[in-house]
Amino acid sequence: MQPLKTVWSPVAVLLLLGYLAAAGYYLFVRFVTAWDLGNQAWYGLLVLGVEILGITSVLPYALMLLRYTTQTNCKGFPKDNGRTLLPEDKRFHVRVLVPCYKESLGTIEATVQAALDAEMPPSCKRTVYLCDDGKDKEKKAYIETLAHSGYGVEYVSGRTRGAGEINGKSGNLNNCLRTVIYAEYDFEAKPASIPATELVVVFDADMAAKRTFFVKVLEVMWDEETALCLTPQSFHNVDAAADIWNHVNPQFWQYVLPGCDALGYVGCTGTNVCIRARCLAQAGWFPEYTITEDYALSMELKLAGFRGRYLPEYLAVGEAPDEVRAVTRQRSRWTKGHMQVFFSGRCPLLQRRLSLLHKVLYTNGTWAYFATIATTYMFTLVPFVSLVFGWHPVTFSRPFAFASTAYLVAGAVLSGFVRRPAHSRGMWLSGVSNNLLAFTYLKAVVNTLLAKAGFKDTAGFKATAKKPLAPLCAAVAKIAAMSITVGRTMSALWTSSISAAFGHGGAGGFGNRRASVLASGAPVVVGPSAAADAFVTVNAHTAAAAGRPKSPHRPSRLSVELPSHSNSLRPSFDQPHPHIEPTTLNPRAFAALAPGPVPAFGDASDAAHTQGSAGAGEIVVTDGDAVHCWSWAAANWHSLDGALDPLAIGASLAISLMAIGAGAQQAVAQGTGFSLADIRSVAHIFMSGRMDAFMLLAMLWSAVNAIPPALFFVYWWSKGPLLRWCCTIGQWLSLLLGAAAIACLWLLIPAEIDPAAILPSALNFLDAQRSGSALHAAPAAAYPWLNASGVLDPVPGGFYMAADYVKYGPPMASSMALLAWGLVEFGGGYEQAEVRTQALDLLAHGTDYLLRCHSSERQQFVVQIGDPEDYVVDAARGLGSWSGPGNMPGNRTIHLITNSSSGGSDALAAAAAALASAHSALNSSRPELAAKALKHAKELYSMALNVQLLNSSYCGAVVPCQGAAVPQQDSSSSVSGGAVAAAAAAAAAAAAAGDGVSAVHWVAYPSSSTYDDLAWAAAWLYKATGMSAYLSEAELFYRLHLEHEAQLGSPAGWIPSVDNMGFAAGVMLMRLLPGSLQYREVPAALLRGWMLGKNNWTEGVTQATPHGFLWTPSPAPAHTVAAVGMIGLAFAAAEDAAGRVRLVRNMECWCMKQLYSLTGGEIADGTSYIVGAGPRWPKRPHHRQASCPADGSPCTVTTALMSSLPNPRQLTGSLVAGPDAYGGFRDVRSNAAQLAVGLDGNVFLSGLLAGLLDRNVKPGECHGGRGFFQNMFLSYAP
C-alpha cells in the first residue's frame, strides 16, 4: 500500500537554475557598483547585506520546489467481497487527544463529535480523550454523558502544573499519555514496548475532522516505518481570496511541506496529526522546553531516526483567529517558540545527528523570521530615505538595469511558482501577511532574547482565543447534509474512491454548488446517534440549492431528529455506535448563526484550497454574516489590550505615504514650466518634470509597500466583500507597479559619462586650434587632416580662438590662465586621464606665444594678429572667406599696446595673469620657462597699471572689437584674380547704393571690464611671489570690480567667461585667504543662483530647458555651463580647504550634473553639445577646417559652410555653443550662434572634467534628486 509518491518538478528545476544565475550576476553588479556611491557606500553595502539575507531565505524554499510528495491512486485498504479485512498487526487503536483550556463548550462539542463521527476501518478502535487543563465542569459532564451512552470517550484533567511551565499544551498531552493511556507501560525504560498499533491523533480544540480522516491517515500509517502522518489545516471562517493573515497558507501546505517531505523532513504542526505512540515515547513525548511543541517534536523525531510523512489532503476544518489581537498573539507565539529552540542547546545547527540539509531545513523557519524582519523594514525605509533624505543604495546603469530586471523577474517567478493557477492569490497574500506581521515577529524575537538574558520571564503557552463555533457547526452541518444525501450509496462510492463522496466532478454534486444555512430560533437537535453523520441538519431548501433531490422524509424546519438506526448512512464496515437519546446541543454554539451563503466544500471559488492529485477538496466554509463595520472595528479595538502591532502597521503605511508625498512635492516644485507640447518621448515626460529615475522608482516602490498596511486598515473595518475587492485590486496594482518599476529602470537609465574618457578629446581640440608648429602625436592622431598654420605670422604660435584665423590676445591669454588654474587646482584629474603632459605642452605653447608678444625693451605688447572683418560671411549670398589656413586672408595686421595707448589694461592684465599662472603650473616641469613667464608677468602687470586710463578696455582704444563689413568673394573659388577684385568692388558699390548687398555686423570678443582682470593677475602674482603688495592690490581691484563693473542685479552679471574673470578672481582670493569670508560671498552667490535659479541679487539667474539644461543669455550657453562647473569645483575645493565641508558634495554633484546636461541629459535622451560624447552630437560644428571637403576640392561658403552634409572632418571633443532658451538646437553649420566652437569653451570644459576626476566625484553619489528634507530644511547651495 503506497498512498504517497515523490515526483520531480522540471519547471522548478529550471526556475531555480535561472534564479541562481540572475541572483549571482545581480550580487556581482551590486557589489562592484556599491563603491561608486562614495561616502554612501556603507549604506549601499548595508542594503546589499539585507538583500543577501533575503536570498538565503529564498534558496531553501526553492529547494523544496524541486521534488514534492503527492498522492497516488491507491485503492485503499485491502478488500474482500466489499468488506475490508485487516491483519492482526494492523488493527490500530487510535487515541484521539483533544487538548483544551478555556475554549467554549460549543467548540469542544464540534471537535469531539466530528472525531466520533469520522469513519473507522473494522477491527480498529477509537478512544477520544478530552484533555482539559481548565477543569471545566460543563465539559466534564458532556464527556461523561457521551461515555454513559457507550462512546469511547474519557475526560482527563486535574494535573499539577509545574513552576515555570513553558508549554501547557505539551504538559496537558503528556499527562494524558503518561498517566492515563500508557501508565501500565514501562515507556521510560522500554518505549518500544508500546505496540506499533497504538496511534495518537491530536486535534486542536477547534479542529473538526472530516469523515474520511482516519481511513486516509491510517493508509499512510500502515507502514510501521512511518512514525507520523501530518495533514493540512483548513478554516471555515477564512475567505481565501482575502486572507491577509495567510491562515490558509497554500504556500506552506501545498509547496513547502510536500517539498520537505520529499527531502526527508519530519513535519508536524500540532493538530490534524497522527503519531505512532512508541515513536513518540522514544522521542520523549511532546517537548515542553518551547511553546511550539510541534516544531520541536518534528526535530526530535528526526533526531531519533524516525520518518514522517505528509498527506497533502485537507481532512479537517477549524477556526482561525480573526480579531487582530488574536492573530498577532498566535503568530507571536509561533515566533517565540522557534526562537526558544534556536537560542538554546536544541538549536538544529548544533545537532550532530542532523545532516547539513536537515540542519538547513529545520533552521529555515527561524531564519525566515529574521529575513522577513530585516527585508520588510529595510525595503520600507529605502524608498523613504531616497525621497526624504536623498540617500540612494544603488547606482543606476545599464548593467544594473539588466541585472536587477533579471533578478526581480526570476525571483518573482520562483516565489510565485504555482502548480495550480488558483494558488497565485494565496502566494501573493503570504507576502502581504509577512509585511503586516514583521513587527510581531520583531517583538517576539526581542522578548525571547530579553528572556534569555534574564530581563524578562520566559514566554509560556497561551492558547489562541476561540469563539463559540456556530460557523464551525454550520460547516459540520454541511458534512452532515452531504452524508445524509449520499449515505445510501456510500458503499458503492467507497469501492471506487473515498474522495468521490464529495462529488467534485459531477454536475449534481457539491463540487460547483453553494448552499445556504438558515437559522431559526429553535434549538438544534441531534438525533439518536451523534455519530450518525450530523449533529445539526439543514432544511429542505438547502438540499435543493445544492442540486440534490428533496427528501420527503425531512421536515422543512431546521431542527430535525435523525432516525435512531443510522448505520445505513455509513459504509457497512464502520462499527455502529450505541443508541443515545435525542440531545439538544448547547445553543451557544449557534448563537451567531445567521442567514447567508456558505460555500460548499470544494467550491470552484475555493480552488486554492483543493488538493491536486487526489481530487479531494479542502473544506473551507466562509461565514456569510454581514458583520457591521463599526462593530467589527470596535471588536478589534477592544481586543487590542495595549498591543502596538496596529500602530507599527500604521507607521509603515505612514512612511510609505510620506515618501510618496515627498516625491510628489519635489516633482511639482521642480516641474515649474512643464509643457506637454515639448514632450518627445515617454522618458522625456519625467525629465521634463525634472523627476529623476530615483524619485520615480522610489515612489513606485513606496506605492507597493503601502498596499499591505492599507489592506490591514480595510480589514480593521470589514472582512466582507470590500476586503476581497481591495485584495484583488491590490494584487493587480502590485503587479502593475512592479512592471512600471522595471520599465523605469530601462526608460530612465542614466547616461554613462566618464570624464576621463572625454578629457583627452577636449584637450585634443585645444591642440587643433594651435597656430604655428605641427601637432603632437595625440592630437595629430585625432585630427590627421590638420597641418601647421600661421608659421609666417609676425609672431608665430599661439591659438586661434574659434572658426577664423585671428589670434585674439586677451581671450587667448585668459584661456591659458584658466588652463593653468586647472592644472594647479585639479592636477590629479589630468593625471588620472593620463593627459597632464599634453596639457602642460599646450600651456607651454601658449606661454611661449605670449612671451613673444611682449617686448620689454619697447614696452609694447602684441594684442591681436589679424582682422575679424576678413572672415565675415554672408551665407545667404555665398560671400566671404571660408577656407583652410592655407588660404587665409593675407592681411595679418598686428595690433599693439604701448605706454602711449589710452587703454588696454585689461589685455595686459590678462596676459600677466596667464604668465603668472603658467609659472605656478610649469615650475616643476619647465623651470626655465616658468621663471621667464614670471618675469614678463610682472612687467606686463606694471605696464597695465601705467596705462593712461586704468579702466579703459583695449576694445576700441586699441582694437576694434565689433563693426560692419561687406563680405568678400572667397579667393579660393574658381574665379580669376581680376574677377575677384571686380566682384569685390561691385559688392562694395552695391552696398553703398543700397542694392541689397549690405554690410554684415560682427562682434569679436569684446571686453566689458578691467578691474576683474587686474584682480585676477594680482592674485596669481601673489601666489607666485608671495609679495603682500600684490595681495593688497588684488583685494583692491576685486572690490572695485564689484562696485563699478559687476552687473549683479541682472542675469547677465552671473555669466562667467573670459570677459568676466571676477568670479575666478574671487575664488582665487578665497584660496589665498581661507579665513576671510568677504571674498566668498559673490562666488557663493554665483553657485546659489545657478543651483537654485536665483540668489540674493537676482531672480531668474538661469532658465531650465525641458532637458534640464541651464540656459543663460550668453553668446555660448554651453560654454557658460562649463565655466560655472569649473568655477564651482574650484569653489568647492576652496571650501573644503577652509573646513567648510557641509555643502561641498552638493556642489560637486551639481557640477557633475552640468556635465550630464552638456552630454545629452541625465538619461541621455537629448543632444550632446560635446562632439563625440553622448548618444547624439552635432555633426556640423561651425569650423572652417573641419567643414572643408576631404578630397581637397575648393573649400568655399557654398561647398563647405552651406553644405548640408556632416563635416568631412570630425572635431571630436569640441564643445559647441549650445541650445536656445527652450532647448531648441539646429545642427546647421551656418547656425554659428549654436554650433560655434572655441578655445575658451574647451578650456572651461577641460577644467570641469579634470575637477570631477580630481575631486573624485562619482556618478553613484550624484545620480538622483535631492531629498525632501534637504529641500525644506537644509541649505542645498552655498
From TrEMBL:
Residues 543-581 are annotated as: Disordered. The chain crosses the membrane at residues 7-29, 41-66, 367-394, 400-418, 694-717, 729-749. It is found in: Membrane. SUPFAM superfamilies: Nucleotide-diphospho-sugar transferases (SSF53448), Six-hairpin glycosidases (SSF48208). Coiled coil: none annotated. It comes from the Eukaryota. It catalyses: Endohydrolysis of (1->4)-beta-D-glucosidic linkages in cellulose, lichenin and cereal beta-D-glucans. It is an enzyme of class 3 (hydrolase). Its main location: membrane. Residues 759-1249 form the Glycoside hydrolase family domain. Its EC number is 3.2.1.4. It is a multi-pass membrane protein. Keywords: Carbohydrate metabolism, Cellulose degradation, Glycosyltransferase, Membrane, Polysaccharide degradation, Transferase, Transmembrane, Transmembrane helix. Belongs to the glycosyl hydrolase 9 (cellulase E) family. This is cellulase. It comes from Tetradesmus obliquus (Green alga).
